[in-house]
Amino acid sequence: MTNSPRIILGIDPGSRCTGYGIIGISGQDIKHIGHGQIRTKGDDLGSRLQQIHHQLNLVIDEFQPDEAAIEQIFTCRNPRSALILGHARGVALLAVSHLPNSEYSPRTIKQAVVGYGNAEKSQMQHMMRALLGLTTQPPSDAADALAVAWCHASSRRIHPSLLARS
User: Fold this and answer.
1) pTM of the entire structure?
2) Would you say 113 and 128 are in contact if contact means Cβ atoms under 8 Å apart?
3) 141 is catalytic
4) What pLDDT digit, counting tens, does each position of 25-77 carry?
5) What is the pLDDT of residue 19?
6) How far is CA 143 from CA 18, 28, 45, 164, in A?
């Protein structure tokens, strides 16, 4: 039996743009598998949430992740924005509910990737490009999603016995 990389889906939820990042881990090695953005259309929140759910399910079908990690809500100044973001997170959590999943705060993610909990988006993009050996800088939302997956892989929450896919 050969050990395949364990595939982790990272999600940076948003109602207008949800980023996703897929990495594979095998032992101590972490490699880039894919990333992208789900850009919703229209002004109807219900329709945008449905688009997020549908597109995330397509990503899951394509990449067959073993587990998922999602960014927690950060403190918003605007309560309405926080509620809308909460809906997008809920839809994302529903899409990955059949997978083992974890949630991480923005500060924890930035600390894991950059070493500084208040890192800027451009720093996150630069670090994900460098850490994963990407030839181009990923879009901000995709870089954030890759960072969520990286944080999860680095957190040591993954028990070594789970690294081998069955």
Assistant:
1) 0.89
2) yes
3) yes
4) 988 889 999 999 999 999 999 999 999 999 999 999 999 999 999 999 766 67
5) 97
6) 11, 21, 25, 26
- Among 12, 66, 67, 144, the active-site one is 12
pLDDT-derived band at 160, boundaries 50, 70, 90: very low
pLDDT at 165 over 50: no
DSSP, residue by residue, the chain: -PPPPEEEEEEE--SSEEEEEEEEEETTEEEEEEEEEEE--SS-HHHHHHHHHHHHHHHHHHH--SEEEEEPPPPPSSHHHHHHHHHHHHHHHHHTTTS-EEEE-HHHHHHHHTS-TT--HHHHHHHHHHHHT-SSPPPHHHHHHHHHHHHHHHTT-S-GGGSS--
Q: Does 71 participate in catalysis according to the annotation? A: yes
Active site residue 44: no
Closest residue by Cα to residue 148 from 28, 33, 8: 8
Q: Which of 66, 67, 141, 144 is catalytic?
A: 141
Residue 162 has pLDDT above 70, yes or no: no
